[in-house]
Design brief:
Blueprint lengths: L1 H4 L6 E4 L19 E4 L7 E5 L18 E3 L3 E3 L9 E5 L5 E4 L11 E9 L8 E5 L10 E6 L5 E8 L2 E9 L9 E9 L2 E6 L2 E7 L11 E3 L11 E10 L16
Antiparallel strand pairs: 1-2, 3-17, 4-7, 5-6, 6-17, 7-16, 8-13, 8-17, 9-10, 9-16, 10-11, 11-12, 13-14, 14-15
Length: 259
């Protein structure tokens, strides 16, 4: 009941009241609001965590409990599953993505990690991005774009923007765009001054970057590149996590359990 009362999707309050250790009591019975609390999912360093096990609107399972808005036809699906019983299906139709409100937490000045599992369908639009915030969005300085499947060439791209100019760019060639009928893990990590793109736990390139990512008032988009209304990915996504820590610093085996 208190999960509902206090809007706690991933924690509960266990109340405990006991006056046996109070040395002096008033004439009235004690009615305190003391409680023991239990929290999960990595504390406040986890900025966004989506399992997609819930029906739309999807719940942010981090302690921040951010609002996740479904735009277009993104929906829970059990057609392709990776972790748990459901994933999010991105149909590739115009303007189908998830939106999270702008917050200063996403204007990174130190370490961070962005990651997810993605099953890219063969017929999918290659131009879409996994995670985007303010990339080429009119009226906003640039923030970042995490993993764009570029339709006009064989490159897979990740960009950092600061102010109104490109700050760092991680690009690597792969003419398949991973449309191979398999799930793949994508991660972008800044550890100190090194930013690394990981694919299935293996580094695909690094750049040196210690700058704060430029602030903007753009929402954070999942499943589209804000550069164009038609740039929505087609496929299935699971276990989206954004943290302000460097979760990986060398080759790793991606987790196949829910965070």
């Amino acid at each position: 009941e208190n999960r509902v009362a206090y809007n706690l999707p991933n924690a509960m309050i266990e109340q405990f009241q006991d006056d046996s250790k109070i040395g002096t009591e008033t004439t009235g019975d004690r009615n305190a609001s003391e409680y023991w609390g239990t929290t999960i999912n990595g504390g406040t360093d986890v900025l966004l965590l989506l399992h997609f096990e819930d029906t739309s609107p999807f719940l942010d399972s981090s302690l921040h409990a951010r609002t996740v808005t479904t735009v277009g036809s993104v929906a829970r699906s059990n057609t392709q599953t990776k972790i748990g019983s459901y994933t999010a299906n991105f149909p590739g139709t115009t303007d189908s993505y998830l939106s999270v409100p702008d917050h200063a937490d996403f204007d990174f000045s130190g370490d961070f990690t962005m990651e997810c599992w993605f099953y890219h369908e063969t017929a999918g639009n290659n131009e879409g991005a996994l995670i985007d915030k303010g990339y080429h969005q009119g009226g906003n300085p640039f923030n970042f774009l995490f993993y764009r499947f570029h339709e006009s060439n064989t490159n897979n791209e990740t960009y950092f923007k600061q102010g109104t100019s490109m700050d760092s760019n991680l690009t690597w060639a792969d003419d398949s765009h991973h449309n191979d009928g398999n799930w793949h893990h994508y991660a972008l990590v800044r550890n100190g001054s090194t930013v690394t793109n990981y694919f299935d736990g293996t580094s695909k390139g690094s750049v040196t970057n210690t700058n704060s990512i430029g602030a903007s008032d753009a929402n954070l988009f999942i499943g589209t590149n804000a550069n164009g209304a038609g740039d929505s990915i087609q496929g299935y996504m699971d276990e989206v996590r954004i943290t302000k820590t460097a979760e990986y610093t060398t080759t790793f085996t991606p987790s196949t359990s829910a965070f």
